[in-house]
Amino acid sequence: MKERKIFITDDNKFVIVCPICQKEETVNASEYKEANQVARITYRCKCGHAHHVLLERRKFYRRETCLHGVCIGEENIMTGMLVKDLSLVGMKFEIENTQDFICVGKKLFVEFFLDDEHKTLIRKEAVIKIVSGSLIGAEFCGEEPDEPADSAIESYLIP
Ligand SMILES: [Zn+2]
Fold it and tell me: pTM score > 0.85 for this model?
């Protein structure tokens, strides 16, 4: 049976259309515990037809990572970091040494290599959202789908 991709919307719902009876159904994605990841589900329509779909929360899909890199703050102060998870909109990372430029609201540049087959270099500007000990959550500044780094992250997240 052919598998179709369905995108979960920001309000955590997805629309499924039965290929047999064309009936449209809006489903709440939170019923699927794997909703934070790519999930394969089998959905049974009221007409009895079961179809397989691949649920994707493209924008918010996070992948756990272990990627070494650096973050660069004001005056080009640099510190080593370990990227713990990555999504299209941001990342979580751990820094080796505490730095003054690590505080909520500050902008910095992050640089790391993906461990994909091309070892793609990612360099992005990010703003710090959460600081919890040595663990930092940052959101990327500006999402430009045409940017090579973004499409590299996208295909890294969803192969
Ligand atoms: Zn149906």
Answer: no
